[in-house]
Amino acid sequence: MPVFSPQVIHECAMECVGLPKPDMFEAFGRALEQRYPGVVDTTQPWVYSIAGGAMIQMKLYYASATEYVMIWGTPIGSQGHSGRHCAGFWDTVIDGDMWYFGEGDFERRVYEPGDQVYVGPGQARSMNFRNGVWAVEYARGFIPASIPFGIAEEILICWDFLTAAQTLSLYADLVSQSIGRSVRPIKPLTDAVSKVAHTVTHLLTPSPEVRAIPAKNIHWFQKNV
After folding, report:
1. How far apart are CA 56 and CA 79, in angstroms?
2. Is 100 within 8 Å of 130 (Cβ atoms)?
3. How far is CA 133 from the centre of its chain?
4. What is the pLDDT of residues 123-161, one digit of tens each?
5. 114: alpha, beta or left, given left = phi > 0 and alpha = psi -120 to 50?
6. Is the distance from CB of 78 to CB of 54 less than 8 angstroms?
7. Are 87 and 150 in contact (CB under 8 A)?
8. Closest among 83, 118, 122 to 98, alpha carbons compared
9. What's the whole-model pTM score?
10. How far apart are CA 58 and CA 53, in angstroms?
């Protein structure tokens, strides 16, 4: 039996529409915890996701072999292929907008905050996020079949082995938690796996970004050295 309802996830997403970032993401996490107590994990870090030509970042709140819940997005825009998966995806836009088109479409479909998009198993979409978008996503189906799509570009094109490893450790952590809740006799084992995977995810967190020096500061430095 599914743990989550697409409609309830949509309701949680609607509670954070219009809020500034990152308050928006925290509000979604709180709404999710209220409706599904003891099920979601709000401690996971944001990680990159590079798949289908689109580069975004994501924060997972729950994952199992058959479901996941996350927020994903980009502040600068991207575009690509949604992938053709064994799972169906419900996306609620919470900030920005998405342009989609499917096979046989000759006009774009524009989705704005509050709109929900569904892409079913075996279906695919062309996506364009223009200037940026943030969305809540709930997926239901055979999730492991989507893992190659999620990490192939990271490994083979971007050589971003860190992001690929972090994605796998994060998923292993959440799946172990899910199994432990469902199969109580093996919970000590799944808790141990979850703890190791969680540690790996956080150890792989990149060092803080080194920001470029603004031009005016460079000129001041050159004058005063």
Report:
1. 10
2. no
3. 12
4. 999 999 988 999 999 999 999 999 999 999 999 999 999
5. left
6. yes
7. no
8. 118
9. 0.91
10. 15
